[in-house]
Design brief:
By secondary structure, this protein is an all-alpha fold. The protein is 88% helix and 0% strand. Helix 1 crosses helix 5, helix 1 crosses helix 7 and helix 3 crosses helix 6.
Length: 273
Amino acid sequence: MPNAMGRMATNYLRQHPVVAVSTFGRQMGMGVRAGRSLTSDIVHRTFRFSEFIRQCAFMATTSVIPTLLVAIPFGVIVSVQVGAIAGQVGATSFAGAANGLGIIRQGAPLVTALLMAGAVGSAVCADLGSRTIRDEIDAMKVMAISPLQRLVVPRLAAAMVVSVLLCGSVCFVGFITGYMFNVFVQSGTPGSYLGTFAAFATIGDLVLALIKSVVFGAIVAIVACDKGLTTRGGPGGVANSVNAAVVSSVILLFAVNVLFTQLYTIAFPARLI
């Protein structure tokens, strides 16, 4: 038994990097093809707007309420931590700048990304995975209908649009929550909170957050569609694909967020507090 377990562990360690690289390459290829197809469909006016609107409505109803419910306590947590540190160093007047920029630059995109991966990504993967095991995808290919153009492209566009809207909502709700908590609970000054935030925050911070949200939405859509379209093994395989899609999306989202943050730090060093 120990020898068999050792062989299984060895085979897993040997094969897992190859499978991971192959999966990442397949998803990158799908993303490039989907982006090219989306651009071509819009230019040639063949984009499926009805499916796009349907997917936007589905993703919005799936993720809006959970995202806003997460944004409220997140704004409170950031305000508590920032207020405590600012009070210790005697810089309570800068709580608005630190709190607002923390929410806009990092909090809102990450909250949006996690909710998109957990709610939207899992739903999209389950939908496409169920179609795959019912041989609907193979039937579409037999009828010369591209699953990429018919199923992936509208979901990709919808995920990017909904992600931007959610990010903007989280920015607003998180900032308002932090402001109210700082003023009414921590006895902060409203004018100081808003003044320091206005002094340090720029349009570029909001643009960065929205760009992040677009990329995060695209990552969630591509990973979910790829896992759904490659589902194998019946209903159990759908569950495994959903789990893999959420985990893979979260890992990629955090890695891309670190990359964006580093690039922004290098490009705009003076914007750091």
